[in-house]
Prior knowledge:
By secondary structure, the chain is α+β, with helices and mostly antiparallel strands. The chain has one domain. It contains 1 helix and 4 strands. The strands form 2 sheets. It has a two-stranded antiparallel ribbon. The model has no long low-confidence stretch (mean pLDDT 93).
Amino acid sequence: MDLRVRRGTRRIVVGGVPVGGGAPVVVQSMTNTDTRDWESTVSQIRRLEAAGCEMVRVAVP
């Protein structure tokens, strides 16, 4: 069993969601739509939210 000591991190807040510093794990995902098609991107984000996703990352070309 690997019992490595975890490195301490600072807590930051991203869009109202705390990340790091002992905060609970955040369910996150990333869109895979063509972001130039904003309607399908927003639709995918809403589906992710309905599935329990708390943070969504979007890449913009």
